[in-house]
Every structure is written in C-alpha cells, then in structure tokens.
Request: fold
Amino acid sequence: MAKKTIDQVDVAGKNVLMRVDFNVPLDENQQITDDRRIRMALPSIKSVIDRGGRVILMSHLGRPAGKGDDAKFSLEPAAKQLAVLLDKPVAFATDTVGDDATSKAGKLADGDVLVLENLRFNPGEKKGDSEFAGKLAAMADVYCNDAFGTCHRKDASMVAVPEAMAGKPRVVGHLVAKEIAYLTDAISNPNRPFVAILGGAKVSDKINVINNLLGICDTVLIGGAMAYTFSLAQGGKVGNSLVEKDKVDLAKELLAKGGDKLQLPVDTHCGDDFGNIAGCNKKVVAAGEIPDDMEGLDIGPETAKIYADIIKNAKTVVWNGPMGVFEKPPMDAGTKAVAQAVADSDSTSIIGGGDSAAAVDQLGFADQVSHVSTGGGASLAMLEGERFAAVDLLDEA
Reply:
C-alpha cells in the first residue's frame, strides 16, 4: 500500500495544495491551547518550501453550522501560529475558493505559504462537491494529503480534489506515510505474538475492530467500560457500571468467537461516586461481582498484572482505548500499568488516536512507543480493515 511521498516529487516553482489537520483547540479568546497538530505538519510543509515550492494549506476546524458564530472556527489563529513556528510570514485567505484565495494563490512566490480559510465554511466540503473541489484543484500543480485524521472521510478536500487533479502528482505527506506504514503494514504482516488492547466505553464502537483483530491477533485484551457489557453477557453483576444492555447478545457472540484469544478483566476497581472519585468509597472486587451501589471505573490490580505479563512477551502491540477513567486518580492505575508494560516491551507498539493517545501522552510514555496515531476515527477504521478512497486514489510509490 506504499504511496509516493511529497519528498519524491519535484516541487520547485510549483503550487502544492496540501490537506493538513489544523483542527486545533481554541479558547474563548481564539487562542490555540495545543498546537501539536500544526507542529506535526511542519516536516511536510518544510519539504516543499525548502525545495523552492509554494504551499497552499487547507484544513477544517470544528463544526461550523452557519449560525452566525462561525468566526470562532476561523483558521486565522492557526495561520499566525504557523508563521511563528516557521519563523517566516504566512499569508491567510479569508475564503476558500473566492477572490481572496485565488488572488493570493496566484501571487505566491517560491518558498511562500498560504493558509485558506476553514474548508467547512463552504457547504461543498462535507458534500464532496465536485465544483468546489475543481476550484481548489485549479490553484495547484501538486496535491498532498497529510491529514490522516480525516482519511476515512469522503470530504471534497480528501477525495474530489485529488480526483479533479488526475494527471498531476498526488502524494502523501510525512504523517500519512508514517500512519500507513505502521497501521497497515504492521497489521498485514505482524511480528508475533501480536497483542491488541482495546478499551473505551462502548462495545458498539469497537465491534468491527474486535471482529477483525480476532482473526489476526494472538490475544485481544479488553478493558474500559466495554468490559462490563461482556461481564453482563457472562451473567455477572455490574452494579451501576456503564453498560450497553442492547449489545449483550453481540458480546456473547464475540466471546464465543474469541475463545481463549479474548481476555477479560479478572477484577475491577469500583467506586460509588463518579463525580467525586478521589473522595468516594472504593474497593477492588472480582470481575462480575460489582456491588449494586457501585460502578466499575478501572481494571483491578490482578488484571493489570496479567495484562502486563502478556504485553511483555508481545512483538507487536496495537492499543486503542484506556483501561479506565485515566483522567482521575486512582482510577488511572490500570491504564498506567498497561502503558508502562507497552513502553517496557521491545515490541512494535502502535497507539490508536483519541483517548489512548491522550493517555499515553499524559502519562509520559509517548516517546517510549513506536507510533502514536494522529487520527482516532481513522486509526479505528484502519484497524477494522477498511479501505480509504482518500488514500487509494493517490500515486503508488
């Protein structure tokens, strides 16, 4: 599935239309609170401008609904922060395909950078509109996809734009190339034992992932609130725990299919007040024996030990979803133990995006794993075995 990268294309004197993920968090004063996504795009941007190319950057930010408050979703703060990081001026267009964007794109000199306004300010983006895509495509000589987090979507900038640029170079940036290398190649030909760790709240969010990985992995470890739905399926007591009662039959099917491959917690750390975890009554009980007035909030210490031992011997680890309420000590203990075991192992370790990426980062293990994915939904879709039109239509290496 290797794709041609931006480094393999001659960009000198050419306009490169690059889809990035500048969907950064902003506070009420339009100040960026975490610029990581902008920083992660720098290698691909620099690859172009350092070789005499011109970059036109396009991204979405938030979910503008055209209700009069769209200004808070402007990409202008991202453009300003990019200028700081690049230590050079960055132009900003107040529209996407209107007069300002086309005029500024036409005046770019070699090494210049232009950021277009939020793609989702134009209804054509979410609709995958070919006319909107054609106007974006007309600005450039090269298309580059460096937005893995939206690779599973069919937005205009992801699919219709590269379709409209058929015959011109259509490549991946550094981020997408790395995601493909880890998430696709490691899973299609993993070193074994291959262990998957799946957490989070809902079985329904991970059905296809569990199904797919049961056919590929040697062991699938289950944690998080989804474990309580499996526990209910086994006739266990789950107290006030978060469960999906309508998914119990499905959990039974997955248990039957998984057999010994599917490992569930053997104990649970419970509490009686989610709103006051630090001060509430807490106890560790055997799995399936949660008191009526309590809810499961983390895997227990015995489970953490068993899981850590399994991870220690793994050669490939994929982790998506925390083991418990990792933001609130002491219910971060299970996620911490798993993160430590992954960091200590000599496996190829791939952390899916979203909460598991946040947990690994928050707990300080991000530098001790092989790869932390930049896309929660996209990494899940790839773990499900889904194909992405946004990637398939790009040039082969």
Notes: The chain has a mean pLDDT of 93. The chain has 15 helices and 17 strands. The domain at 6-176 is CATH 3.40.50.1260 (Rossmann fold). The two ends are 9 Å apart (CA to CA).
